[in-house]
Amino acid sequence: MDAIVQHYISENGTLDIDAWREHLDFTFVCFWGLTIIDNSAGSTCLAIEMVPVTGHCTKVPRNVNIEKLRNGYLFPEISVREFKHIQKYPDAKLISLGIGDTTEPIPEVVTSAMSEALRKAIVEMFYRDVGVKDTEVFVSDGAQSDISRLQLLLGSNVTMAVQDPSFPESVGYVAMGLKFIVDDKFQAYIDSSVIIGQTSKFQEETGKYGNIEYMKCGPENNFFPDLSATSRTDVIFFCSPNNPTGYAASREQLKKLVKFARENGSIIIYDSAYAAYITDDSPRSIFEVPGAREVAIEVSSFSKFAGFTGVRLGWTVVPEELLFSNGFPVIKDFDRIVCTCFNGASNIAQAGGLACLSSEGYMAVRAVVEYYKENAKILVDTFTSLGLMVYGGNNAPYVWVHFPGLRSWDVFNEVLEKTHIITVPGRGFGPGGEEYIRVGVFGGREYILEASRRLKKLFD
Amino acid sequence: MILAIFCEAFKTKVSRNANMAKLQAGYLFPEIARRRATHLLKYPDAQVISLGIGDTTEPIPEVITSAMAKRSHALTTLEGYSGYGAEQGEKQLRAAIASTFYGDLGIEEGDIFVSDGAKCDISRLQVLFGSNVTMAVQDPSYPAYVDSSVIMGQTGLFQKDFEKYGNIEYMRCTPENGFFPDLSSVSRTDVIFFCSPNNPTGIAATREQLTRLVKFAKDNGSIIVYDSAYAMYMSDDSPRSIFEIPGAKEVAIETSSFSKYAGFTGVRLGWTVVPKELLFSDGFSVAKDFNRIVCTCFNGASNIAQAGGLACLSPEGLKGMRDVIGFYKENTEIIMDTFNSLGFNVYGGKNAPYVWVHFPGRSSWDVFAEILEKTHVVTTPGSGFGPGGEGFIRVSAFGHRGNVLEASKRIKQLYK
């Protein structure tokens, strides 16, 4: 249950609609009214009543790029539906496999340590055999901030490509402050691109922003884009293991990607936040691929590796060999951005990060990762036993379940209505996600087992 | 770091961001750190004392660190574990900031955006404004305002003759104008950065001056970005918040920080206030867009830092912060007395932990180098803060008492 919505739910389980509205009203700064309406198609929409603007307006024009952001009158449907569901079934023990937020506590050894050379530890733990230097590692407060700083570095005159699915449909931030159930990071690729001015307007018909290359990933192409059909862009965002599909690209596939980038003179921004979840021998870092140092930046995070979603710690690797077209090293400019626009990750978070990479700490956080992976296995088995096509779960904390011919929102609704389980409709990740639902594996074991029981009953 | 680019090196076809190319040298403070390091190589036994980079030195009060330790340990328990938080900050902390600093000014919890510090906030505000706005800064001023503006593409090229970037309005602040710009000669810009108490001059604007500034912004339809990071250092009754000025909510954003109050320069915690009344030219709410930026480009301040922040604002925490601030203010007095006794014209110091010393006719980098070379004391050259800083040195008052006394002794020796 979304933490913000939860705040407005009183002890007897009713939502203080007025208080919640007031909270939302702020979004519209006192002059917009909100009405939650149901339409017969099953989607929940927000009607916005507009009230004339009074008061002083500055003469500062609004940033046109922010204007392009999908401001839709769509609402974070899932939070609303979750709430309404609770209203309808007050005694239901709701299980949320929606939000991609970690649940298990951080091991003791990690929370009680002192801080030191985190960069060196990161290199030693993750990049020992691939030649990354500690001077190429930039510690941050997480991937979302890093992606934004990378966009600032690149500026508005570059083009970019993203995997599809890998981003939620821009449901917009109409209800400010409400948590989105999809991984914010993935919103960050597209939205940060829009904000910086790299894209043109959102096109309703296609569900896509202009000037972004969307690289379709599905079972039909083994969840790896057909690069021969992909136009050249300056930057390619690539997330592996992938959210939401859970697919980890193979060594062969990443070689092709690096070759493609090299031939096109593009820069890959490789998001390896879920590398710790890999079970097989898929590459954990893009730098395992020869030649990647001249074409790739890698972003990673302690969030899903160590439960640091609230603590805030991550890193970005910018190899010295990575050069702009005029020969200028990218690392130099990124360093400047980091010095000008940032002041470092919290020293306490860094101390925790260092403890994560100590031998005791690493074993402890790995145990939590294994715990989540066990959850994944249970869910994969559950869906498989029901005869459904299941992807992911093996190398990532997400299970991607296919319901051919069905609308993902319909499946979401049915699952919620009948089993009181929150999932994420694949359509929320882009046109490529239709017919799928994403099931997260974060949660206590009992929850996961209970969820499995209910799902088996439903689909039997 | 690669210093030589060989022709055979593989180059991507991605153009370097032209805005980055406009930036001059390195950001000021890493540059100072570099010079300090070089100096240490030259004089390995020197007892270098740094009154340069404005970094706090005194420990954080116990009540605050215990709260952070407690929150840290709670993360190891099921009940106490928390994951992603609201990007705008934890409710309790936002409420405490609103009531502690803006209690009777009509600023509420919902107007507060908790962050990982003012520098990051400034950058996010620039992303919010975009490249098509013009800005004004005080001259001299904290370099992040100008540099972030350059990076965003709001400025023209650096003009070496003037030591200024094209398309920025530099509002000269000097002893002659009481360190408050002559607004009648300032061109209209969309955004006005204003820091008070000021870094580097240490001057706090008066109520009357700020009233003029708010009027100026209102008349011009501009937005003031008011940096109040040193407000708690004030000794007199100058305004601590821009929102003390009537009408400011329609024209100003305020940014502040726990860095200099609680020694949180490494812990990373600050906040920005965006009033509901602040609107773009089309009536759209600035707070709404800022919220979008915060949700897209940020993921909240560390939960542990926020727990510390909440403890800072408890009665015991506030007392602890005031004690530390008091300590630094005593340092400031020592430094002011030192330079005054040597016959220098000394500014600031009363309302901020910075002393602004005039060396008329001299290059500030030369004075910086002279002081470093001869006394092993690091200061900050005024020109690093803009052309208006030329001829001045900023001496920061953060340091252990012993070091501050020793530095004073050495400076007295040098300039007696």
UniProtKB/TrEMBL annotation, chain A:
Cross-referenced Pfam families: Aminotran_1_2 (PF00155)
Species in which this protein is naturally found: Tetracentron sinense (Spur-leaf)
The Swiss-Prot or TrEMBL record describes its family as follows: Belongs to the class-I pyridoxal-phosphate-dependent aminotransferase family. LL-diaminopimelate aminotransferase subfamily.
The question of whether Transferase is a record keyword is answered with yes
Q: GO molecular function of the protein, one example?
A: transaminase activity
Name the lineage: Eukaryota, Viridiplantae, Streptophyta, Embryophyta, Tracheophyta
Q: Does the keyword Transport apply?
A: no
Its name, as the record gives it, is: Aminotransferase class I/classII large domain-containing protein
Q: Which cofactor does it need?
A: pyridoxal 5'-phosphate
The residue ranges of the Aminotransferase class I/classII large domain are 216-443
GO term, biological process aspect, one = systemic acquired resistance, salicylic acid mediated signaling pathway
Report the Gene3D superfamilies cross-referenced here. Answer: Aspartate Aminotransferase, domain 1 (3.90.1150.10), Type I PLP-dependent aspartate aminotransferase-like (Major domain) (3.40.640.10)
| Superkingdom of origin | Eukaryota
Q: Which UniProt keywords apply?
A: Aminotransferase, Pyridoxal phosphate, Transferase
Q: Which InterPro entries match?
A: Aminotransferase_I/II_large (IPR004839), DapL/ALD1 (IPR019942), PyrdxlP-dep_Trfase (IPR015424), PyrdxlP-dep_Trfase_major (IPR015421), PyrdxlP-dep_Trfase_small (IPR015422)
UniProtKB/TrEMBL annotation, chain B:
Q: Which UniProt keywords apply?
A: Aminotransferase, Pyridoxal phosphate, Transferase
Q: Which cofactor does it need?
A: pyridoxal 5'-phosphate
Which is a Pfam family this sequence falls into?
Aminotran_1_2
- Record keyword Transferase present: yes
Instruction: State if Chloroplast is listed as a keyword.
Output: no
Q: Which Gene3D superfamilies match?
A: Aspartate Aminotransferase, domain 1 (3.90.1150.10), Type I PLP-dependent aspartate aminotransferase-like (Major domain) (3.40.640.10)
What is the residue range of the signal peptide feature? Answer: none
Kindly list the biological process annotations in GO that this record carries: systemic acquired resistance, salicylic acid mediated signaling pathway
UniProt domain Aminotransferase class I/classII large: residue ranges: 47-408
What InterPro entries would the database entry show? Aminotransferase_I/II_large, DapL/ALD1, PyrdxlP-dep_Trfase, PyrdxlP-dep_Trfase_major, PyrdxlP-dep_Trfase_small
What does the record give under GO molecular function? pyridoxal phosphate binding; transaminase activity
Q: Give the family per the record.
A: Belongs to the class-I pyridoxal-phosphate-dependent aminotransferase family. LL-diaminopimelate aminotransferase subfamily.
The record, for HAMAP family, names: DapL_aminotrans_1 (MF_01642)
Official protein name in the record: Aminotransferase class I/classII large domain-containing protein
Organism, as annotated: Tetracentron sinense (Spur-leaf)
